[in-house]
Structures
1.
Amino acid sequence: KSQHNIRLGKHGKWDDTYEDKSHPFICTHTEHFVYSASKVTFNKAQDYCSYGGMTLAHSLSPEENVEIVRMGREKSPLDALGKTHPYLNRNWAWIGASDNFNEGVWRWSRGTKVYFSNWENSQPDNLEEDYLEGNTVTEGQDYASISKVTGGWDDSFATRTREYVCMCEEHEFVASSDLDEELTVMLANQTAAWNEKKQQLEDDKVVQSNSPPLSCQTNRYFAYTERLSWTDAKAKCEDRQMSLAKISSMKQNFDATRLMFQQDPIDMATMKQYYSDDNWFWVGLSDIAAEGKFKWTTDGSAVDYDNWGSQQPDNIRVSEYSMRGQNYVAVHKLLRYWDDSDGDRLLPFLCQCPGYEDVDEEEVLGTTEAPSDSHGPIVQASTAAGGKRFIYHWGETNFWAAQSRCVNSGETSPVPQTLSKTSSLPASSDRHLGSGCWITTKRANSSAPTLIN
């Protein structure tokens, strides 16, 4: 075969190459979708889309679903074998939906729930055996792809190599006007099915709209993963006879962030971007009435517990063209810090169920039974090193996140500088020390923490 495609090297030179080569690319056109006929794994598809400032296609409608099928057939036409064997990898393209964090709960790459879907019959099935490879795998099928044959969806293994569809979010979707007869019928069927499902969703919403969620019978908080402004989030909570959450203690801060992280997880790439919207959620705290005097919307009370991040609240103007400051409080899902923020940010949010007083149940941390949290089990042990008591977290994290977790969960992180693996740490932790654990010992004349191995 010949080399008819051009690639740009990092040195700035051009090279002709084969069309099936896999490379990052840059989105420089006005289309909403970019369809790649290169076959890659799900993770590589995500990476290649992000390199071009895009995401895997998400939040699809019936029109967009059919448009992807049309583009797929145009970029990589179906052959006779593909039509008779619909589950061949070359007939499928990755889209940005997954239930990797919570089996059976499908979410788009932006964290929102999948409402419109077009699953093939008996899908998703979460098979644990890769019949194409003839082996059993430890994880199930957690990633969605779309068929060029039927437009239906299938859950699959992330290691499968398939074509993929990126989305340029800055460009609006424009439906194609040249669908052939088969695609026109496909669109009509998917639209009819979606309209029926939307009506059911509306009916469910009407039934539930005037009462709190059932989980409020046993829980203080209820998490919404929908992204709304602070004002709209407050209204949404109140529509269900709840209020935006109030946090009055260290334990409530721990419970709130843990619930939000479990319901709306964030990936490692997002964690590294501290101010990414996906890392934060709204609570019911504001100083909009009087600058610097934060009050809870739940009952109008002043703040008696806080966990502000460094140099917060700072009331920075939302833009250089506006005098409006940051008057609404968001909380970091993982680090548990608070930040005053622009109320127009679209964030998930936490509601407080009715009937809960500001009295904590017994503290989760410090009990005789070691609890588990979203970052891994906590193992407690006493040592002979001056009667010190340590709590070991097996979950891996960086030093500053470890320090934050200790402080926010009621523990303290300082450890004597004489601490050593053999004399002070309990035997139950030895297996973890093979990969290192954080303590706050510092090298002489250095501000860097030391990793004890």
2.
Amino acid sequence: LDTVRENKKGAKISSYEKRHPAHTQDIANVLLDMSNQLADLPGGIYQWSGEEKVSKWDIVQLISQQLNLPINHLEEVAGPAAGGGVPRPRDVEMDRSKLTERGIRHHTDFKTGFMKSLQPFL
């Protein structure tokens, strides 16, 4: 939010790395469903991530559109980060199948959840 608001300061924003953000209420509901099935839940690792694929650039564009703020001071970076830093994964989607096969699935669409979470800071 500050990066978009501070329009006198430029920044490079990645559209290359993709994230799958999950709303905290969705995660809470997944955990509640898991606890309700605990007696029948096989051991192992269970993963959850949001269903929508977004980049930091997608988020900047959403903020710009929803709050009517310019982003012409920001530069989209469409490829991997240059400069010799630690390479980041391109897509960090987790396998939700062990949960969805058990009927456990909760999803708040990104735009709705993100903008609601942003309200206290506006």
3.
Amino acid sequence: AAVSTQSAGSSGINAEYGRHSKQLILILQVLKQSCRELLLLVVMWAMGVVTFGSIMYYIEEDQPGSEFNSILKACWWAVVTMSTVGYGDLYPTSVPGKLVGSVVVFLSMVFMALPMTIIVSKFSRAYEEMKEPNQ
């Protein structure tokens, strides 16, 4: 038994999908326009992961009970810390390590905020342009 796609309420549903797809297209356009900013964000984040992971490894490698037994593992700590997830599976035990950890958290917020302000500005501008023809 075939179900008819035409019904009394289907035009409302199609309009709903059309409205959402316009918004989805807007988001995709803004992401496309923001490729340079997103690339900057990824590069800065990767540089931070490698830099702070290496620093943390050399600070914590000789500490008793430290889990930082490789630069790769320290880079994992940097990924978790810079993304502000903070699993708690790996953490510094020395005072210098804790200070570096605090700096990493602060700088990661700055790294994320700078490109995001540009992207949000582009989205706001594109959204206003999308609304103008409808008014």
